[in-house]
Amino acid sequence: METLIWALVLILFTILWGFISANRVFFKQINLKIKDWPQKNTRILLLSDLHTSGSGLRIKRTISLAKNTPADLICITGDLIVRRIDQEEKVAQALQKITAGRPTFLVWGNNDYNREIDRQYLYELLEKQGIKVLVNESTTFENLVIGGLGDPFWHKDDLEKTLLTDVDLLLSHTPEPIMKAAGKVKLLLAGHTHAGQFCWPDGSPLLPELKKEKAFSYGLHFYKGTFIYTTSGIGTTRLPLRYFCYPELVLLEVTPE
Fold first, then answer.
1. Number of domains the chain contains
2. What is the pTM of this model?
3. How does pLDDT run across 35-66, given as a tens digit for each residue?
């Protein structure tokens, strides 16, 4: 009986620890020098995988951090919304608080294609707020050309179409497009992996497919002439838990080399 009680205590502690870890949103800053970067200084705030219904501890912390972070532009690499019906307005309101009127560029993630989500309505809400949704197209911000891919997970991406013009900064929900985009763009920003979400104590993912050398599952890498940063994102999937892997907002301060 005593063994059972201690086992239950251990299970409850593990769940609590995972829940607390999943809601400890960290702020991370990276200074990056890139050859031929077209602007003197660009502060990019990167968010991904919010998986939110527009409320909760994690999104409140995210809003607070984002509002207090000076950024020239904000990039959001998909998976905005959880699988709940009629949450589009709440999610759009949360994003409005995060972006606070700053130039924002966004691509869809695999969860944004859920049939429970009215993606067209969400698109309209975001566009009204001045958030530019990019689907296999590019746009400009000052001297910077920004491209955004459709979601690669559901094969909605068209890299060739997106790169019809010379793109400096490419947004993708997943990091896989780096294999074909390398050398064609200066910087690629991605999410999707949650950096593993469930990791070993050294931070390495439990999932074998994320352990591969070229999985680019988390962090900053330089591959064949292109920098890529894959963020651990904000939210969680399936279970609202994280282990040895924390949610993050990332500020990349990019200057020419």
1. 1
2. 0.96
3. 999 999 999 999 999 999 998 899 999 999 99
